Amino acid sequence: MRILRSADYRRMKWKNGGGETVEIAVFPAHATLDNFAWRISMATVASDGSFSIFDDCDRTLSILSGKGMTLAGAGGAGVHLTTAGAPYAFPADAATTATLTDGRVTDLNVMSRRTIMSHSMTRMTVDGEASVQTTGGTIALFCHDGRLAATRGGTVVSLAAQDCLIVDDMAGQSLNLSGKASFFTIRFNEIPQ
């Protein structure tokens, strides 16, 4: 299990230069925006505008704070995202624009390169104890707020708000959780070649 602390995240410019992103985790390690297999990041969106284009990638977005925003693609119909809504998946290589509802938002962004990797993201809460079942691949737990303890094979790790836990090779095992927190479970699986 790898613990990633929020104070250690890398800050960098958006690919389109329109803002700043906080890179939480990337695979393989030290991959660039052009060659990652998967990537988890946060961004503050302060104005309406277009999303960066990432060729051959899929993206899932969830609102962490703020009043929300509406995403619109080439099809025209918009999808409104809020802190209470489920994460929204869409192609990262499709032209997409964001319109803020009322002021800036912070979002959690997960991407994977669809030719080699798939991903899913689920918003969850724990108040006491819970467990996360796995079927293999890599799993990431991002603690949105509160405090969360995760136990695997007798090893216990603690996550504070905006910390992330990465666990590889979890096939057939469960990750036991305790605490009071809202968090996201992110799963990555290789695409058979």
Task: Tell me about this structure.
InterPro entries: RmlC-like_jellyroll, RmlC_Cupin_sf, Uncharacterised_HutD/Ves. This is HutD family protein. It is built from no helices and 16 strands. The chain has strands at residues 2-4, 10-13, 20-27, 38-45, 49-50, 57-65, 69-73, 78-81, 88-91, 96-100, 105-113, 117-133, 138-152, 155-159, 164-168, 174-190. The relative contact order is 0.21. The mean pLDDT is 91. It is mainly β.
CATH topology annotation of the largest domain: Jelly Rolls
Global structural class: mainly beta
Task: Tell me the count of domains.
Answer: 2
Oligomeric category: single chain
Count of helix runs: 0
Helix content: under 10%
Total beta strands: 16
Strand composition percent = over 45%
* Alpha-carbon distance between the two ends: 27 Å
Tell me the CATH superfamily of the largest domain: Jelly Rolls
Using the CA coordinates, give the radius of gyration.
16 Å
Shape: globular
Largest sheet: 6 strands, antiparallel
User: Unreliable segments (pLDDT under 50, ≥5 consecutive)?
Assistant: none
- What is the CATH domain class of the largest domain? Mainly Beta
Average the pLDDT over all residues and give the rounded result.
91
Summarize the structure.
With 193 residues, the protein is mostly beta strands.
